[in-house]
Specification:
Chain B: This is ALA-interacting subunit. The complex is a heterodimer of chains A (1180) and B (359). Chain A is α+β, with helices and mostly antiparallel strands. Helices cover 47% and strands 18% of the residues of chain A.
């Protein structure tokens, strides 16, 4: 509505064939004063995101489909079946059928009795735990009992127990919070008197009174407030994180009745509870009159009343049916690319597992067949049991069953081939990585006092593989702190010299009751214009200036709030509102002496050059994305009526009567062009005086439309369009939105890192291009291809032309080996309407992938998602979307990684994002440093875990071949269990969290190092196979060196088992130690500590006389052969790995290796020399 | 023009915010409420660290070090192994002739004379102590069902006499628990050997302390006596002296340390005199243990010992091989380094510097 951020061209506005069908749908809900219509629509979209994701349709049709789905609930007439009937002040009747829930809330998941079953049920949703469980159950069958009961259940039980304790603690805290919340006292009307009642006892239909600074206990429809006009200011920070005040209104029909004195009764029919916190549709019958209710009449649970003494309302939704509770869900979970690839390898590993098991069971079958004749005398198979009087079968189930049993037993023995513990380690590692990302003081934004936020915990490593960055412009590249710069009034450009008003005395102020009131923000003013605005005479220009500033001050939804300062004689006026553009305009008007000091739903008070004037606000047409303008109808004190309109130039010039003054229109257009070409945001203001007849017609239709229950928004729009015409042009304003600090440098770094940065903005093309230049996205050497079409055919043609041009250019570039000049594609939303979701998409993709830079301007929120999908669906490259506003939500959710900027435009982007931060430039440390680290760490950790577990399994497997294929393990069962829990678990987690392949400085100096993640250098199929071959070699060494050394000796199986245990743990840890790059004391402690812990565990296990291996380790350690074997194993197993590493590092060093060396042998000379090379590159 | 005024409004206000209070809400926020993460070297991931890099110097010295350590160890191992004198005599087929079934019949019969005489020639002087082992081949003492068929509790504690559930099928006989129960004890090896030299002087075999001290002290009870052992119809092997407690039945203790591999030796006793080269040792053995029915081999082994244990060249050869390989690698690497040196950390090697657009 009020935001004139021209970022919302829906296709309907230009593709006129579609507009009629879509427009009536998609803005039905725009009846929300003080709520950004855009936020409204896209919040619905975000809530409905699944549905639009399902229909992969991002072009124009996509918008209409999605919108109609999103709005269908509110658009439908509330029929009796679907409606919730609330009898005001009659909770008994309201709750007759007991279908509405009470106001007590329960966020706790469990009760004392349900805890165990429910918690277990939830935990077993994880595949890993199911695998554990199935293996443990298999092991309980007497024929298959490989491990003892304790050893087989302990790991699962301990994991379950730890998780359960954690869940129980969290739940206990939730219960405690619930209790406080439920027992909070609120004032409720009982027997016509307000009494204190505990919050949980509030019922739907009761009348609740809330005082200033109190939290609303349930969703209430406002009946009356302390304000005579029925306004209540609320803060919704608990709900959506926005800290500015929003206004809520009581209906005219009820605001005069003060409960407790007057009797209030009535019937509210409203929608069923839903999650949309920006939508509410209901009507109320009071005194036989039917009044409609919208989102501006409801205050939601969790909001806080501010600047209003009290408000009274009737509870319509309570407890868990309140919108706040219905919205209590976390961010959608994504799965990282690395994990997807890892799962592929896990499937391979399970094939290995099955292969091993088949080998073992087949061999067991052959063995049994070969020894078939002997089975009778082999006591452990003895088919006939001679120990009894009657000869009976004993312990032999027939060949087939024996093979089957050995298969299952081998699954149990080799179970850790599937590294289940890896999933748990990965979660721990991600938590650790998130800890460091959050605490990185390079990503702390001092200006907004926000830390980096990790909202999604499972895609940390994706940050290291991004190929495309899609960025919003406003608020992301720029600060979204609007500053009024220039004005063009009646064709005269006021962009001259500025006076800055800083300090105590400067700026415009007014005297009220001996106090000085001044606007909170100070604005630079044009001295000439300031002088002109102060002179009041009847010249035409003076009048036009008067009207222009009056329009700026009045035509908005800003609420002025008077704030006390430390100086008792001075007060500040703080303009609260949704749109930063509007705030800037109102502050500007105030600086020129048109100070808005009061706004109610019925009137505004403006102090004009020291003279207070009151205007009646007779009507207001909110901003919507089709009209892209808003209007307000003002009744002057002298009872003339005028309509003021402000909006985007494209739509404003259509409704301006050019015949009035053609030259003014022309010069204004020129000014607009020059403003936007330096990156300013422009708005056009127009005005028309209404005759009494006109006003009457308008008023009747406005009233009909605004109380309509069907298609109210559509009707209102028609009314608005009828009155917003034949305007006379007042002028245009230009607002500057500054680039954020460090944006050009950040973009430069990202470009160097091989990341393609696309800017998707709702702004005008000229603005977008100029921002492109100032952010160094575009350079003068680039060739710009601009696609700006109005039909499908012309789109097709220009795409084809562009493809030809770009191909030619790229060929030329290649021939001359000049990589400096490249292609930039600039495309607007209208063309995208025809291109997305049609066969032209493919061509656009081909073109875009040839371009170094892509700028999309005038795009609608869903088109942003469509563009992200264009890349995501066609390539394997990772995408990242960054934005700050509600219009970026769809794109943030669509991209592989969504980053929200916690900026000026509310919190919706942050809520939908995976990571949130304060500034665009933090993207560089986030991706280049943390992303790189996380990727390297996680990739290494996964490979290492595969290796670690497979090595152990191979060793078990080799031994099985020497035991008649009967799955004996010489390694004790306790060591098998502890292997992945104690012996080897901690170092890999520590390395996964802490190891750094390169320092922050190197990564920032050479952004190109980021390419290793994009090229999947640290985790790919080749590395997996190499690792597996290495594993095989190491297992052969570990197994066969002792085997051959102790062949034909009197060694017992426990001793040999201990030797294998120690050998495998030593080499697994030393293998890790060889790959650790940065040895801090923590890595030392964990790696050597694990080895020591293993020795201690082995000693403890061997000190239990009840186990067969009693004292084996001590006997073993006293023999020289043991130590010689151990040393031999360590060296022999590492040699191939060492050789490969050496040769790769010396002969084919990767960039990371060189940078690491450079880091170590730091040589200032070389760094500077390199800097020059970098600088020279483009000029070659 | 855009950049003409580089300071943002907020920044411009920030210094005056404390006095005027007229800044934006952000700068009004009290500094003490700052959420700025506390700086520590840990949270900023800047802990002091050692960053080892494998420079050619390091690599070559590492390989050389391995060579220097491994070759001497390999040589001494080989020498030690060479000094070990080992006499192996397979006697299972020599003592009983005939087809497999005949052999089985012979060994299972209660009445046949199972005494067998073998003579061994000592080729090299054997210094005492000479260990006497029996070696069984193809005897899966590590078969899962065999290994599990024992009760360690029963062996230790008198009270756990009936803890025989894991011992099936050798858990009870005639309704009473067997001590020691299980297949491992049941299949106790029971061939016996006695040695004499060519001049007919008896060579004493010391059978004391052939088992681990820890086993005698802790694992096998001094108050647990064999009971009901080998009383069923199906006799697996040796019998035990029921008047001796288990911790003095050393043959059983040795046997119960189940072997790791299907071919294994077990200590039978020690001969504590030197035997000169060229002497012939006559062995009188009672060939009672049935390995014929599963085609197992039985061997008698007399062996001296070295610091490395018995005769086994593998470790020596393996060490020499690894040491040699490392020497080879060290040389190769030196050559590579000399032929194609690379300046470490030279940014010119970075891929984007090396190859900027096709140069």
């Amino acid at each position: 509505m009020t935001s004139n951020r021209p970022s919302l061209p829906t296709p309907g506005s230009t593709g006129s064939d579609l507009s009629s069908s879509t427009s009536s749908n998609n803005s039905d809900n725009n009846q929300i004063p003080n709520l950004h219509s855009l936020q409204n629509s896209s919040s619905q979209l975000s809530i409905k995101s699944n549905s639009w994701r399902a229909s992969v349709n991002f072009g124009s049709k996509g918008v209409s489909v999605a919108d109609s789905e999103g709005f269908s609930i509110s658009r439908r007439e509330i029929n009796e079946d679907d409606a919730r009937l609330v009898y005001v002040n009659d909770p008994l009747k309201t709750n007759e059928t007991f279908e509405f829930c009470g106001n007590s809330i329960r966020t706790g998941k469990y009760s004392v009795f349900t805890f165990l079953p429910r918690n277990l049920f939830e935990q077993f949703h994880r595949v890993a735990y199911m695998y554990f469980l199935i293996i443990a159950i298999l092991n309980q069958l007497p024929q298959l009992a490989v491990f003892g009961r304790g050893a087989s259940i302990l790991p699962l039980a301990s994991v379950l127990f730890v998780t359960a304790v954690k869940d129980a603690y969290e739940d206990w805290r939730r219960h405690k919070a619930d209790k406080i919340e439920n027992n909070r006292l609120s004032s409720v009307l009982v027997n016509d008197q307000f009494q204190h009642k505990r919050s949980k006892d509030i019922q739907v239909g009761e009348i609740v009174k809330v005082s200033a600074d109190e939290t609303i206990p349930c969703d209430i429809v406002v009946l009356c407030t302390s304000d005579p006009t029925g306004v209540a200011y609320v803060q919704t920070i608990n709900l959506d994180g926005e800290s500015n005040l929003k206004t809520r209104y009581a209906k005219q029909e009820t605001l005069s009745r003060v409960p407790g004195k007057d009797v209030i009764s009535g019937l509210i029919k409203c929608e069923k509870p839903n999650r949309n916190i920006y939508g509410f549709q209901a009507n109320m019958e009071v005194d036989g009159k039917r009044v409609s209710l919208g989102p501006s009449n409801i205050i939601l649970r969790g909001c806080v009343i501010k600047n209003t003494d009290w408000a009274v309302g009737v509870a319509v939704y309570a407890g868990r049916e309140t919108k706040a509770m219905l919205n209590n869900s976390g961010a959608p979970s994504k799965r990282s690319r690395l994990e997807t690839h890892m799962n592929r390898e896990i499937i391979l590993l399970s094939f290995f597992l099955v292969t091993l098991c088949i080998i073992v069971s087949a061999c067991a079958g052959f063995w049994l067949r070969r020894h078939q004749d002997e089975l009778d005398i082999m006591p452990f198979y003895r088919r006939k049991d001679y120990s009894k009087e009657q000869v009976e079968n004993y312990n032999y189930y027939g060949l087939g069953m024996e093979i089957f049993f050995s298969f299952l037993m081998s699954v149990i023995v080799f179970q850790i081939m599937i590294p289940i513990s890896l999933y748990i380690s990965m979660e721990l590692v991600r938590v650790g990585q998130a800890y460091f990302m959050i605490r990185d003081d390079k990503m702390f934004d001092a200006a907004s006092n926000t830390r980096f936020q990790c909202r999604a915990l499972n895609i940390n490593e994706d940050l290291g593989q991004i190929k495309y960055v899609f960025s919003d412009k406003t608020g992301t590249l720029t600060e979204n702190k609007m500053e009024f710069q220039f004005a063009s009034i009646s064709g005269v450009d006021y962009s001259g010299e500025k006076i800055e008003f800083y300090g105590e005395q400067g700026g415009y102020n007014i005297q009220v009751d001996g106090q000085v009131w001044r606007p909170k923000m100070k604005v630079q003013v044009d001295s000439k214009l300031l002088k002109l605005s102060k002179t009041r005479n009847d010249t035409k220009s003076s009048k036009e200036i008067y009207d222009f500033f009056l329009a700026l001050a009045a035509c908005n939804t800003i609420v002025p709030i008077v704030v006390n300062t430390s100086n008792p004689n001075e007060k500040l006026i703080d303009y609260q509102g949704e749109s930063p553009d509007e705030q800037a305009l109102v502050y500007a008007a105030a600086a020129y002496g048109f100070m808005l000091i009061e706004r109610t739903s019925g009137h505004i008070v403006i102090d004009i050059q020291g003279e207070r004037q009151r205007f009646n606000v007779l009507g207001m047409h909110e901003f919507d994305s089709d009209r892209k303008r808003m209007s307000v109808i003002l009744g002057y004190p002298d009872s003339t009526v005028k309509v003021f309109v402000k909006g985007a130039d494209t739509t404003m010039f259509k409704v301006i009567d050019e015949s009035l003054n053609l030259s003014v229109v022309k010069s204004t257009e020129n000014h607009l062009h020059s403003y936007s070409s330096i990156g300013l945001r422009t708005l056009v203001v127009g005005m028309r005086a209404l005759s009494i007849a006109e006003f009457d017609t308008w008023q009747t239709s406005y009233e009909i439309a605004s109380t309509a229950l069907m298609g109210r928004a559509g009707l209102l729009r028609k009314v608005a369009v009828n009155i917003e015409n034949n305007l006379s042009l007042l002028g245009a304003s230009a607002i500057e939105d500054r680039l954020q600090k460090g944006v050009p440098e950040a973009i430069e770094s990202l470009r160097k890192a091989g990341i393609k940065v696309w800017v998707l903005t709702g702004d005008k093309q000229e603005t977008a291009i100029s921002i492109g230049y100032s952010s160094k996205l575009l350079t003068s050497k680039m060739m710009q291809i601009i696609i700006n079409n109005n039909s499908k055919m012309s789109c097709k043609k220009s795409l084809e032309d562009a493809l030809v041009t770009s191909r030619k250019l790229i060929n030329v570039t290649r021939a001359s080996e000049d990589d400096a000049s490249s292609v930039a594609l600039i495309i607007d939303g209208t063309s995208l309407v025809y291109i997305l979701d049609s066969e032209l998409e493919e061509q656009l993709f081909e073109l875009a992938s040839k371009c170094a830079v892509v700028l999309c301007c005038r795009v609608a929120p869903l088109q942003k998602a469509g563009i992200v999908a264009l890349i995501k669906n066609r390539t394997d490259d990772m995408t990242l979307a960054i934005g700050d506003g509600a219009n970026d939500v769809s794109m943030i959710q669509m991209a592989d990684v969504g980053v929200g900027i916690s900026g000026q435009e509310g919190r919706q982007a942050v809520m939908a994002s995976d990571f949130a931060m304060g500034q665009f430039r933090f993207l560089v440390p986030l991706m280049l440093v943390h992303g790189h680290w996380n990727y390297q760490r996680m990739a290494y950790m996964i490979l290492y875990n595969f290796y670690r577990n497979a090595l152990f399994v191979f060793i078990l497997f080799w031994y099985v071949l020497y035991t008649g294929f009967t799955l004996t393990t010489s390694i004790t069962e306790w060591s098998s269990v502890l292997y992945s829990v104690i012996y080897t678990a901690i170092p890999t987690i520590v390395v996964g969290i802490l190891d750094k392949d390169l320092s922050r400085k190197s990564l920032m100096t050479y952004p190109q190092l980021y390419g290793s993640g994009q090229r999947k250098e640290s985790y790919n199929a080749k590395l997996f196979w190499v690792t597996m071959v290495d594993t095989l070699w190491q297992s052969v060494v570990v197994f066969f060196i002792p085997l051959l050394a102790f062949w034909e000796s009197d060694i017992d199986s426990s001793s040999l088992g201990d030797l294998w245990t120690l050998a495998v743990v030593f080499i697994v840890n030393i293998h890790l130690a060889m790959d650790v790059i940065r040895w801090t004391w923590i890595s030392h402690a964990s790696i050597w500590g694990s080895i020591i812990a293993t020795c201690i565990c082995v000693i403890i296990i061997d000190a239990i006389p009840a186990l067969p291996g009693y004292w084996a380790i001590f006997n073993l350690a006293s023999s020289g052969l043991f130590w010689i074997c151990l040393l031999g194993i360590l060296i022999a197993s590492m040699i191939p790995r060492f050789i490969v590493k050496m040769f790769m590092q010396h002969c084919k060093p990767c960039d990371r290796q060189i940078a690491r060396e450079a880091e170590k042998f730091q040589n200032a000379m070389e760094i500077t020399r390199n800097g020059e090379i970098e600088m020279n590159l483009p000029h070659r | 023009m855009m950049n003409s005024n580089p300071s943002t409004p907020m920044n411009a206000h920030a210094p005056s915010s404390s006095s005027g209070g007229a800044g934006s809400p952000d700068s009004n926020a009290p500094r003490r409420n700052s959420k700025r993460p506390k700086y520590s070297r840990f949270t900023q991931q800047e802990l002091p660290a050692c960053k080892p890099i494998l420079t050619p110097k390091w690599v070559i010295s590492a390989f050389m070090l391995v060579t220097i350590v491994f070759i001497p160890i390999g040589l001494t191992s080989l020498l030690a192994s060479r000094d070990v004198v080992e006499i192996i005599d397979r006697y299972d087929n020599a003592c009983v002739q005939g087809s497999k079934s005949q052999k089985v019949q012979h060994i299972q019969s209660q009445t046949t004379n199972k005494t067998c005489v073998r003579s061994l020639t000592v080729t090299k002087r054997m210094k005492q102590p000479i260990y006497v082992y029996y070696q069984l081949d193809n005897f899966y003492q590590n078969h899962r069902r065999y290994v599990k068929s024992r009760s360690d509790n029963q062996l230790r504690n008198l009270g756990d006499e009936n803890d025989t559930s894991s011992c099936k099928p050798e858990n009870d006989a005639n309704g009473m628990s067997i001590v020691p129960c299980g297949l491992v004890a049941w299949s106790l090896f029971n061939d016996t050997y006695s040695f004499s030299t060519s001049n007919n002087s008896q060579l004493a075999i010391n059978k004391r302390h052939i088992s681990w001290k820890s086993d005698r002290d802790e694992k096998f009870g001094s108050d647990v006596f064999p009971k009901n052992f080998q009383n069923s119809s199906f006799i697996g092997g040796g019998r035990l002296n029921e008047s001796l407690p288990l911790n003095e039945q050393e043959d059983l203790i040795v046997w119960m340390r189940t072997a790791a591999l299907p071919t294994f030796r077990k200590l039978y006793g020690k001969i504590e005199v030197d035997i000169e080269a060229g002497e012939t040792i006559n062995v009188v053995l009672e060939n009672r243990y049935n390995t014929y029915s599963f085609s197992g081999k039985k061997k008698l082994v007399l062996s001296t010992t070295s610091w490395l244990g018995g005769k086994n060249n593998f470790i020596g050869i393996a060490y020499l091989a690894v040491g040699g390989l490392c020497f080879l690698l060290a040389t190769t690497f030196t050559i590579i380094y000399l032929v194609k040196p690379r300046h470490l950390g030279d940014p010119n090697y970075l891929s984007w510097n090396r190859n900027p657009g096709g140069h």
